[in-house]
Design goal:
By secondary structure, this protein is of the alpha/beta class. The chain has helices at residues 24-39, 92-96, 125-135, 142-155, 166-177, 182-190, 195-206, 223-228, 239-243, 275-280, 299-313, and strands at residues 14-18, 44-46, 76-80, 100-105, 115-118, 209-211, 216-221, 251-257, 263-269, 285-286, 290-295. It binds manganese (II) ion (MN).
Length: 314
């Protein structure tokens, strides 16, 4: 008989994790499970590889439940929102030596895991996890509902991206009936930005470059900017939404220089053009409408490569 998700709760100790520098979906999924296990008196550790700090716009989530791994070996590891083990960062070796790896995700083709619960058509990992709660009769408290709602909001761009379907709304509706605070969560994520990061936005706007033939727009944040504007990368996630606003563009890219001079890229598409394909040409990943990658290429090399990849699709 096929193992159920909850069968794995029995094999303690348990580690819960997700991709490096986790977003609202990864943290929301992980903490939803942590709260459930706590309520069942099952010991579990939630850890991520985080460079810098957790984003303050997700601090409505119970961050105090996140800690460092305290064991050499976990019998079971739950991995959320992470299709490739290399995206676990410095937790990869700890995760891979576990006997039971359960991957819950909405990325395509996970490359690891003993039990894979995957739906690439789901808008968020919290949507996949919500279905498991329902199917396996696990109760959803208000705190769990807030966590699941957070992933649903961030991965659908507050119910606006093309992955937002009627199931997303029925889940959101059910989560609200369980007490999820939609307006408070949305306000924290989208309605409040650190003042210094907001000032950095002016630089990002100054540097916008549009290729009107390809309808491709991009901008860049340099490592120096964080010092100049007294802010940190974790406060600047909203800037890609500024870049993608220009109505002359269909594909948007924001490059962020890292301390080792490499670049991290965030891609968005508002048409059927698939930015996951663009990201995968840099060994990155994500979804059709939103993807990311890291590269050691130079700025102009990155832009030329992206333009080349866009041309292949149009
Ligand atoms: Mn996700």
């Amino acid at each position: 008989m096929k193992n159920k998700f909850k069968d794995y709760f029995l094999n303690t100790p348990i580690l819960i994790t997700g991709h490096i520098n986790p977003d609202g979906d990864a943290i929301g999924s992980a903490l939803a499970l942590k709260i459930l296990l706590d309520s069942m008196n099952i010991e579990a550790t939630v850890s991520f590889d985080i460079t810098g700090e957790l984003p303050s716009n997700l601090n409505h989530l119970p961050y105090h439940l996140i800690s460092n791994p305290d064991k050499e070996l976990y019998n079971t590891v739950f991995v959320f929102d992470c299709g490739n083990s290399s995206r676990l960062g410095n937790l990869e070796s700890l995760v891979l030596k576990s006997k039971n790896i359960v991957v819950v995700d909405h990325h395509i083709d996970p490359t690891f895991g003993d039990l894979q619960i995957i739906d690439p058509t789901a808008a968020s990992t919290t949507q996949v996890l919500y279905r498991l709660f329902k199917e396996e009769d696990l109760s959803i408290s208000k705190d769990i509902a807030d966590c699941l709602m957070t992933g649903l909001i961030t991965d659908t761009g507050r119910f606006q991206y093309s992955n937002t379907n009627s199931e997303v709304f029925s889940i959101a509706s059910d989560l609200m009936s369980k007490g999820a605070s939609l307006s408070q969560i949305s306000e924290n994520i989208y309605g409040s930005v650190e003042l210094n990061a907001l000032k950095l936005q002016s630089k990002v706007i100054d540097r916008l470059e549009l290729d009107s033939e390809l309808k491709f727009i991009y901008s860049v944040v340099y490592e120096d900017d964080y010092k100049k504007f007294k802010t940190t990368p974790s406060e600047t996630d909203f800037l890609i939404d500024t870049v993608r606003l220009a109505k002359e563009s269909e594909i948007a890219l924001l490059l962020k220089e890292q301390s080792d001079s490499s670049f991290k890229g965030s891609l968005r598409s508002r048409t059927s053009l698939d930015v996951q394909k663009l990201a995968s040409s840099f060994n990155g990943g994500g979804h059709k409408a939103a993807s990311g990658f890291s590269t050691t290429l130079k700025l102009d090399e990155i832009i030329n490569k992206i333009k080349h990849e866009i041309r292949k699709q149009i």
